Amino acid sequence: MKKVLLIALALVLVLTSCKKEEKNYPSLILRYGENQSDGYPTVEAAKYFAQLVKERTDGKIEIKIFTDSALGSEASVIEQMTYGGVDMSRVSIGILVKYFPDLWTLQLPYLYTDNAHMWRVLDGEIGDMYLKKMVGNGLKALAWYDAGARSFYTRFPISRVEDLKGLTIRVMENDLISRTIELLGATAVQIPYEDVYSALQKMRIDGAENNLPSYVFTGHYQAAPYFYQDEHFRLPEVILMSVYAQEKVAAVDPSFVDIINECAIESGVYERKLWQQEEKQAYETAIASGVKITTLSEDDLLALRKAMQPLYQELSDADQEIVNRIENT
């Protein structure tokens, strides 16, 4: 009799254990693509985002983050998201403009006076308007991320605007950025982000343009130790979700859709703080490594803005109104 009771008790314990495991097992795992590495602000913010989602869905929704372009380049990941091949990602509006042409205005060179100005815009009505515009083609934007200001870095010294003429500069897969570079007399070459270091080493390009944290974090400063800090672009980034992923989330629980949106926004605020810390650290690392950072004179800045006038002259009346609102925010 004792033996029967012990067997029955063991069966109860096994069944109870199985039920607990079943309860803790996620109902849905979402794949999140990142082209940066562990430790980078956007990756750490993505981890925070995943943590919030897991906690607030009682473990039913889990976000698995794939770093270092494991799911493909930024452009490839967005394309995969349009048909549900990848569920989520953090992407630049510079790449996303291919799918949402209205973003063209937000990526104009020298649009913002500084980072605080950009966030006044993005945290307000204009930023909300553009987030709502980024819905379609199987995609949906959830929240803004910071990506700092983009400047030039080269294999040899440049100290003034004229020094850019004749150089071959890598840019992301974006035609407006290519045109901006060419207005300065340089040749723009569109190369995926993960191939830039090799292109610099093999002297296929003379330089590139990106934010200071990316420049340092990727080690590009080792191959191109001259940083021309003109801050020509401030291209914010967004957490992007495939609508197919959103449908899968809603099938688990419709309320989880709003929870994911809220968690994305909170992770965006968290990412900004990380970004500020990373910018400070990147600057210190660059200086300590012997990078020559050139800041611009007012004359150089005026010359650069003047060179960009052809782009601003192409604006429609509606886009010009947006630019005016941005300038006055």
Topology:
Blueprint: H1 2-24, E1 28-33, H2 41-56, E2 61-66, H3 74-82, E3 88-92, H4 93-96, H5 115-122, H6 125-133, E4 135-136, E5 139-145, E6 150-154, E7 168-171, H7 175-183, E8 187-190, H8 196-201, E9 207-210, H9 212-217, H10 220-223, E10 226-233, E11 237-242, H11 243-252, H12 255-288, E12 292-295, H13 298-307, H14 309-313, H15 317-327
Parallel strand pairs: 1-2, 1-3, 7-8, 7-9, 10-12
Antiparallel strand pairs: 3-11, 4-5, 5-11, 6-9, 6-10
Describe this structure in words.
This protein has 329 residues and is an alpha/beta fold. It folds into two domains: 27-147 and 235-282, 3-Layer(aba) Sandwich (D-Maltodextrin-Binding Protein, domain 2); 150-234 and 286-327, D-Maltodextrin-Binding Protein, domain 2. The protein has 15 helices and twelve strands. It has helices at 2-24, 41-56, 74-82, 93-96, 115-122, 125-133, 175-183, 196-201, 212-217, 220-223, 243-252, 255-288, 298-307, 309-313, 317-327; strands at residues 28-33, 61-66, 88-92, 135-136, 139-145, 150-154, 168-171, 187-190, 207-210, 226-233, 237-242, 292-295. The chain has a six-stranded mixed β-sheet with strand order 2-1-3-11-5-4, sandwiched between helices. The chain has a six-stranded mixed β-sheet with strand order 8-7-9-6-10-12. Helix 2 (41-56) packs antiparallel against helix 12. The chain is globular. The N and C termini lie far apart (82 Å).
